[in-house]
Design goal:
This protein is 46% helix and 15% strand. The chain has helices spanning 2-15, 18-29, 36-59, 104-122, 129-135, 137-140, 143-157, 221-229, 232-235, 250-263, 275-286, 312-315, 328-338, 341-344, 347-359, 375-386; strands at 65-69, 77-80, 84-87, 93-97, 127-128, 166-167, 173-176, 179-181, 187-189, 196-197, 206-209, 215-218, 240-243, 267-270, 304-307, 324-325, 361-362. The longest helix has 24 residues, at 36-59. The strands form six sheets. A six-stranded mixed beta sheet has the order 10-7-13-12-14-15, sandwiched between helices.
């Protein structure tokens, strides 16, 4: 166990190297920012300016329009190793016109949600995306349509989504050596918990305290529950375990980022050895294309991928019956990942993805149970940490 904690402590120190420490301090100091009232007034003014421009266009017998950043193309983002994906200053824009049949509904929905946001900020109240959606299901058509509109507005106003007073419903869970005070001033203790739902109001979490030596982020809820059943937080604790239950929601990403910024401890990720699992780890570490404008609040560049690595499949002699063949979708996803700039600039990651394609096989975390039912908790994770077997 002494080697185990030495490996963790060495990793923690490496993550706080002078250049990175300075970067973190700058980010933390920049949060002495403007007051909440000033911030609210600033956002309200932006919405008023947008509305005024639309009215002026109508008065000039012109069709009102909105200029939005295209959040679907990689040309609009850049990669920085210290901070992950970032929105470009000069970006390719798309124009949403009221006079265009193609974009008329989108234009109307944006103004409709801007009005909702203006009211929420003005009254200092909050709403969830689900609540807004169910207020007028026929108007939005789908929850995804509303989600896209809210993210477009966040990008348009150049503010994190939480400052719009619209919260997302959480799906992730957290447990371990962690205590904090939520937005309603309730004290939450995650210790000895079987896993509590991550709060929706991450920004207003305060008084975070923990003796944890590391944070373990797990792709799947089934693995999360298995580690709890095997008392992982007791045997290899103190630590914090978090799962996003597959592709992570924004609250899970924000919580991990906040804990990393506050506690300055290593963040390790455990996912399936398949293209989908690799992409999930990439989202936690580098950020995502659609939310690159908010990477400062979401990405954790210091996150380490602890497994399962595709190279582990042969190295551990995982039984053939536990492996699955790659699907056409898996192959396409792997090839897409290989084209991403953060993969091309990280040869070790690139090698892991190419290994998946070479093997034409994938392994889920649960495949380790074919070696031994307790192999993951008693052997794999302790050995990976002790020997620094992360990427």
């Amino acid at each position: 166990m002494e080697e185990f904690w030495k490996a963790i402590d060495d990793l923690r120190k490496s993550l706080l190297a002078p250049n990175l420490s300075e970067n973190l301090d700058n980010k933390l100091n920049s949060s002495v920012y403007e007051s909440k009232d000033e911030n609210r007034r600033r956002i309200l003014k932006k919405i008023e300016d947008i509305t005024e421009n639309c009215v002026q266009s109508i008065c000039r017998n012109q069709s009102p329009s909105l200029v939005l950043v295209n959040r679907k193309i990689w040309e609009n983002v850049r990669y920085q190793p210290v901070s992950g994906l970032k929105a470009q200053r000069e970006t390719v824009k798309s124009v949403v016109k009221f006079s265009s049949k193609k974009s008329m509904k989108r234009f109307a929905l944006i103004l409709h949600i801007l009005a909702k946001i203006y009211h929420l900020i003005q009254t200092n109240t909050y709403s969830t995306k689900r609540e807004i959606y169910y207020q007028n299901i026929n108007l939005f058509g789908s929850q995804n349509t509303l989600n896209t509109i809210i993210d477009d507005i966040s990008c348009l106003l150049k503010v994190p989504r939480n400052q719009l007073h619209i919260m997302a419903t959480s799906k992730g869970h957290v447990t371990g050596n962690l205590r904090f005070q939520d937005g309603e001033k309730n004290y939450i203790d995650c210790c000895n918990s079987i896993g509590m739902l991550i709060p929706a109001d991450i920004e207003n979490i305060t008084n975070i305290s923990s003796n944890a030596k590391f944070i373990l982020v797990i792709e799947k809820d089934a693995t999360f529950q298995k580690l709890l059943d095997e008392k992982f937080t007791v045997h290899l604790g103190p630590c914090i375990i978090i799962t996003g239950k597959g592709f992570p929601d924004i609250n899970t990403r924000k919580l991990i980022h906040k804990l990393w910024n506050t506690l300055h401890i290593p963040v390790l990720a455990l996912a399936d050895a398949d293209p989908h699992g690799v992409e999930i780890v990439c989202v936690y570490k580098f950020g995502s294309l659609s939310l690159a404008h908010n990477s400062d609040n979401l990405a954790v560049p210091c996150l380490k991928w602890i497994g399962i690595h595709p190279t582990d499949i042969d190295r551990l002699h995982i039984p053939e019956k536990a492996l699955l063949p790659l699907t056409k979708h898996d192959i396409n996803k792997a090839n897409v990942l290989l084209k991403r700039i953060y993969i091309q600039q990280n040869p070790i990651w690139e090698h892991q993805i190419k290994t998946i394609l070479k093997l034409n096989k994938k392994a889920e975390i649960q495949s380790l149970c074919e070696i031994s039912d307790t192999f993951l908790c008693n052997v794999y994770l302790p050995a990976k940490i002790r020997l620094g077997g992360w990427i």
